[in-house]
């Protein structure tokens, strides 16, 4: 099986800085990690490889320092990695990101399954995975928390996915793209030996010029139909603890309901 896992490097902090001109994150000088939800995608890819054979290729679009995330994925057990990094990609929204990833995956060749985390913790849109599936014209299965059955020879699979209320079992044909939730597995850790070995690897970096058929007008900030008008941190409010004294649970509930209505909490 050829398994592709899309990952993203995200800031490891809540104290982020914003570029006032582009309304995008300033990533320089901030420690970064693999997007936590993508760790579950990596783990699921490794488990599929262990069960069916084949290889796992991780791919990421981001600044040069995102190479660290790809090397960490290699240390965990991925076989290959590709970095997409170019000034032409800067400021990409979810659509432009999906467009670039789709071009890169087409260049890689045939694949059976693509795995993504359900969303990134910095943008929280959850749109890159579905957008990528749309760009590639393949089946998309979102919020998957269990792969019930997968048959590479027959070219189909059955998954269980989370809905807003309940669960759903879905059968689909391969190739397919799955976005996974944290309930799907428990990500493994790696050893210092594998980390050191991965750190010495040379990860290929593809620019826009390396993507066959790339339309520069669809890349980066100028190719992003979604524009962030303003981004800011919400004001901090000091919490106040108030104990309700009453003679019965019913009286306490009535007082609480009155306060909720008065303070317009709901």
From TrEMBL:
- Boundaries of each Electron transfer flavoprotein alpha/beta-subunit N-terminal domain copy? 22-215
Against Pfam families, the record matches this protein to:
ETF (PF01012)
**What GO terms are given for molecular function?**
electron transfer activity
Q: Which family does it belong to?
A: Belongs to the ETF beta-subunit/FixA family.
What protein is this chain from?
Electron transfer flavoprotein, beta subunit
Source species, please?
hydrocarbon metagenome
Q: What is the lineage of its organism?
A: unclassified sequences, metagenomes, ecological metagenomes
């Amino acid at each position: 099986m050829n398994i592709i896992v899309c990952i993203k490097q995200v800031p490891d902090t809540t104290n982020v800085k914003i570029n006032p001109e582009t309304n995008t994150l300033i990533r320089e000088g901030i420690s970064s990690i693999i997007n936590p939800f993508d760790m579950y995608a990596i783990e699921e890819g490794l488990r599929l490889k262990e069960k069916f054979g084949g290889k796992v290729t991780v791919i990421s679009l981001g600044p040069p320092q995102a190479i660290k995330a790809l090397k960490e994925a290699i240390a965990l057990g991925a076989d290959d990695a590709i970095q997409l990094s170019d000034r032409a990609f800067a400021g990409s929204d979810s659509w432009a990101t999906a467009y670039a990833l789709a071009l890169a995956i087409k260049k890689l060749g045939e694949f059976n399954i693509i795995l993504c985390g359900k969303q990134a913790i910095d943008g929280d849109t959850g749109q890159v995975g579905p957008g990528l599936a749309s760009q590639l014209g393949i089946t998309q299965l979102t919020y998957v928390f269990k792969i019930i059955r997968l048959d590479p020879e027959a070219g189909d699979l059955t998954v269980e996915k989370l809905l807003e209320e309940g669960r759903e079992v879905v059968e689909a044909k391969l190739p397919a793209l799955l976005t996974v939730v944290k309930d799907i597995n428990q990500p493994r850790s790696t050893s210092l030996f594998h980390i050191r070995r991965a750190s010495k690897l040379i990860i290929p970096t593809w620019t826009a010029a390396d993507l066959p058929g790339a339309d520069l007008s669809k890349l980066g900030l100028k190719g992003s139909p979604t524009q962030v008008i303003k981004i800011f941190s919400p004001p901090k409010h000091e919490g106040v603890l108030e104990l309700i004294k009453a003679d019965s649970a019913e009286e306490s509930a009535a007082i609480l309901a009155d306060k909720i209505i008065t303070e317009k909490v709901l």
